[in-house]
Amino acid sequence: MATQGNTDKPVTVDDYNAIQSSGDRALCDLLRKVIDEALPDAENKIWHAHPVWFLAGNPIVGYSKLKGGVRLLFWSGQSFEVQGLEPEGSFKAAEKRYTASDQIDVEQLNTWLGQARSIQWDYKNLVKKRRLDRLT
């Protein structure tokens, strides 16, 4: 596994997925496959220790392993016009949690990913502007 410096933290999405248990790895691999296919122009990287996809430097979607499963997070998900996500945090993020890959509705996930492309809040400049502005 590739690591930064003397830490054992993953530096690529492949590294992140590889350190998960077999069930969680299957879930993460499926999420990654669907996200990569739906957002081929997005940059993906490990950001704050988790896989995140960015469009024009703005975080769009990511996932993280939690104690009870895997959380799929959309930074602008509270503004989506489709249902199925739960609000997360104090800004515009929304999430869906999974415990097994067979719980992922790929059609629904693709709908959310389409919304993620067209409905975005400017998280990239949140610290600088001290406010969250809608981009699209």
If you had to describe this structure to a student in words, what would you say it looks like?
The protein is an alpha+beta fold and 136 residues long. It has one domain: Aspartate Aminotransferase, domain 1, CATH 3.90.1150. 29% of the residues lie in helices and 24% in strands. It is built from 4 helices and 6 strands. Strands 1-2-3-4-6-5 form a 6-stranded antiparallel sheet, covered by helices on one side. Strand 1 and strand 2 form a beta hairpin. The longest helix is centred in the first third of the chain and has 17 residues. The chain starts with 12 loop residues before the first helix and ends in a 7-residue tail after the last helix.
Mean pLDDT: 90
Low-confidence stretches: none
Domain count, please report it. Answer: 1
Give the count of helical stretches: 4
The N- to C-terminal Cα distance equals 38 Å
Q: How many strands in all?
A: 6
Helix content class: 25-40%
For the largest beta-sheet, the strand count, sense and barrel status come to: 6 strands, antiparallel
CATH architecture annotation name? Alpha-Beta Complex
CATH class: Alpha Beta
Please identify the structural class as seen in this structure: alpha+beta
CATH fold node name: Aspartate Aminotransferase, domain 1
